[in-house]
Amino acid sequence: MGLRLHLHVVSDSTGETVTTVSRAALSQFEDVMAVEHVWSFVRSEQQLDTILQEIEALPGAVLFTMVSAELRARLQHGCERIGVPCVPVLDPVMHVLQGALGLTLRPQVGGQHALDAGYFARIEAMNFMLRHDDGMFTDELEQADLVLVGVSRTSKTPTCLYLANRGVKAANVPIVPEQALPGGVDRLRNPLVVGLTINPEVLSQIRVNRLRQIGVAGGDARFTPDYAEVERIKAELVTARRLFAKQGWPVIDVTRRSVEETAAGLMQLLRARLAQAPDVGL
Predict the structure, then answer these.
(1) Which of 98-102, 196-200, 233-237 has the lowest mean pLDDT?
(2) Which of 210, 216, 225, 192 is nearest to 155 (CA)?
C-alpha cells in the first residue's frame, strides 16, 4: 500500500494555480495517495483559523498562494505551531521575475483571472470547440486555428477542450469506416490540420472500456459488433495513415501521451507554423 498524504491547498482566489502545481509535483512520486483539501477564496482571519483547525486535525503538508501579508503570516505561524510544512508556491518565481524585470511587485488577488482579452479569447475558443466537435459544421472550419482528424477514441475531443481553455480555436473530425471525410476538410488552408494515431491494441482496450461504460446493449448505431476488434482497428488506422500521408498532414501518436502531452506537441506545431508564416494561424 502506498503512502498517504493530506495535502492542504490554500488560496485567496480559485485555487486553480496552486492545485495544478501540487498535482504536477505529486506526479513525480510513485505510490503516494494524496488526499486533497482545497480551501479557496480565503480572505479573512476567521476563515484561516477554521482551516488551521482542520490542518491540525489532519496534518500533512500545506501549499498556498495568498496576497495579504497578514494572512500569509498567520497561516505560516499557525503551521509552524502545528509542525507541518507550509510553502508559498509562487514566491520563488515572483522574486526571480521581480529581479529580472527590475520592477516592484504589486500583488493583486486573483490577478491571473482578470477579465482581459485573453479571458475572452478563451471563451470564444471554448464556444468554437463545442460547436465544431466531432465533425459538426465543417463548412466553418477555415475559422479554426487547429483541426484534429482521427479514428474513434483517439482523444480528439478532450485534446480540443484542453486547447480551447488556452485560447486555441480547435475542432475535430472523425474518420469513419467506409465514409468519406466531410466536404472541404481536405482543402482547408487556414487551420493547421493534424492527424492522430494510436497503437491498435491500446485502442482496442479503450474501446472495450467505452462499450462497458455505455452498456453492450446501448443501442448506439456508431458501435458495430466489431468496433473494438483489433483487426478492424488496424484497418481503420491504415486508412487513416494513408489519408494523412496523402494530405501531407503532420501526425501525432497518442499511444503513450496524456492529453496535456498531446496538446503540448500540437502547440509546438502551431508555433513552428506561425514562425514560418506569421500572417497565418492564431
Answers:
(1) 98-102
(2) 210
What's the CA gap between 21 and 61, in Å, rounded? 14
- Which residues in the chain belong to E strands, given as ranges? 3-11, 32-39, 61-65, 86-88, 146-150, 170-174, 192-197, 251-253
Question: How far apart are the C-alpha atoms of 6 and 88, rounded to whole Å?
Answer: 17
Burial group, residue 221, by CB count within 10 angstroms (0-12, 13-18, 19+):
exposed
The amino acid present at 236, given as its one-letter code, is E
Same domain, 35 and 100: yes
Residues 6+ apart with CB under 8 A from 152: 174, 176, 207, 222, 227, 236
Question: In the numeric block, which cell numbers belong to residue 179?
Answer: 465514409
* CATH number of the domain that residue 189 is part of: 3.40.50.300
281 is a domain residue: no
* 94 Cβ contact partners less than 8 Å away, ≥ 6 residues apart: 105
Query: Are the beta carbons of 71 and 45 closer than 8 angstroms?
Result: yes
What is the predicted pLDDT for the residue at 282?
A: 47
Q: Average pLDDT, stretch 52-78?
A: 95
The domain containing residue 264 runs over which residues? 117-276
Q: Which three cell numbers stand for residue 84?
A: 507541518
Distance CA 41, CA 111 (A): 13
Residues 157 and 249 in one domain: yes
Would residue 282 count as lying in a domain?
Answer: no
Residue 177 CB-half CA count within 13 A: 14
In the DSSP assignment, the letter for residue 38 is: E
Residue 238 lies in a domain: yes
**Residue 179 maps to a domain:** yes
Polymer length of the chain: 282
